[in-house]
Amino acid sequence: MNNKERKFYVKLSMVFFPISLLLVLILILLYNFAIISNNAAKSVIEDDLTIETENFTYQIRDELSIMTRMGSAFSDMLNVLSIESANQALPIIGTLCDNSNAYMVVYCDTKGIGVTQSGIKVNVKKDNILRSDKGSSQYYTYIQKENIMQAEAIVSVIPVAEEDEVNGYILMYYSVSHVRKLFAQSSEFSNAFLIFSVDNGEVITTEGLNQQPTKGVTLPQLLNEMDSDIDSQKIQNAVEKMENTSLFLVHDNESKYVIGVPTFINDWYITIGFEKSLYEQKLTDEWTSIRNLITYLLILILAFIFLMVGITLFVQHFYIKHNKKLQKRANTDLLTELNNKVTTEHEIQQYIMENPKACGILFIVDIDNFKGINDTMGHAMGDTVLKRVGYYMREEFGEGNILGRVGGDEFIIFIKGLKSEFEIEAVMRKTGELFKMLSCKETVLESITFSIGAAIFPKDAASFEELYQVADQALYDAKKSGKNQLIQCKGK
Length: 492
Hints:
Blueprint: H1 3-81, H2 90-98, E1 104-108, E2 113-116, E3 121-123, E4 139-143, E5 153-162, E6 165-175, H3 176-185, E7 193-197, E8 203-207, H4 219-226, H5 232-241, E9 245-251, E10 254-262, E11 269-275, H6 276-331, H7 341-354, E12 359-367, H8 370-377, H9 379-397, E13 402-405, E14 410-418, H10 421-440, E15 450-457, H11 464-480, E16 486-488
Parallel strand pairs: 15-16
Antiparallel strand pairs: 1-2, 1-6, 2-3, 4-5, 5-6, 7-8, 7-11, 9-10, 10-11, 12-14, 12-15, 13-14
Keywords: Membrane, Transmembrane, Transmembrane helix
GO molecular function: diguanylate cyclase activity
Organism: Lachnotalea glycerini
């Protein structure tokens, strides 16, 4: 590999090494971004499913809340009307039942004796839903089977009180089966299951399970029965602290993503188990969007890098080309378009250094009586002669040799790559003849002649300085001997 090729590859590495390093860094960053994005996608999907669970929970809680607020308003109405008997409250509780989510409304006294909205006399004392410790505050309670319609219900107990003295109660019964119905009708919970637990985590109803849970089983126990590998204590803690929780479980060879959300009514809790395939599909959809974004960013970055590489290479090519022109101009004698003195000497020295055993001839060519041409015909004619000589030398000796103008009318020709004495003699003879021919051409108003001194490398000298001195002495001898001739060094 020569110096030019080495320099080219050095410059190329200076361009592509930082670009390659930048690409590696970008790929590492994108890889880390992909990992972070995948975790973020999981978080987004889990948040989405949690929101769906919370929305269902809020729907149940809102229905109960609206029902209770209506009951509280009617409780105030009963106080204003000074109802003395349960029968007098029938129109009010009938209207309340017709316009609320309660399937049954009861008005009773503090002993539990009262009537339903249909006028049926009842005693709710056996249901143990009236609690004196609650005072005049509204509260909710759960009944597995109420004694009136034998239904499973959530009861909103609304005291009818005046100045904190309870005179009776409005009882609004909300059907637990209505919760299951709302869940089953929602397309968002297709193939999902529902678990509704109340006081101390006791499961009161389920939907979507292949088998009904055992009576009295708690939420942690039920989930542990479904998959013994889950962390039951984690669920128990979430229920007690009224916090959201989530986990994966496998039940009946089906994977589920389970989310539990508190209702913020007592310690009641709603748990929904989604198909893991739904979770994974949502994750795939989310990840596909992120992957498309990463791909787009990668393409954009690569396009930008390749554009910058293209611009850099173009600028570098333009710079090198322009620099070569400047360098060539700096190395060239502008009049003759040959090498100048410095470049000529440098190229010969470099050749000698790199090819110490090669053979070559150094010619020093001097135009005879050039000063006379300038004096008699003007410097313009002198310049014409120099240009003509430079052109002639390029035409005859330019291929693979070193040519230069090293003085006003002094030129150097260094013939490279000679292999034998026969070639040396042939070049000597040809060079002399060529300049004789040039002397006979009608390039100017009078003929010009040339004196030439020659020295052989490495026979006559092993360095440029010595070789030049030897050839210059031969030129001096040619001038002294009458000019218009080529004289070779007489040897060491």
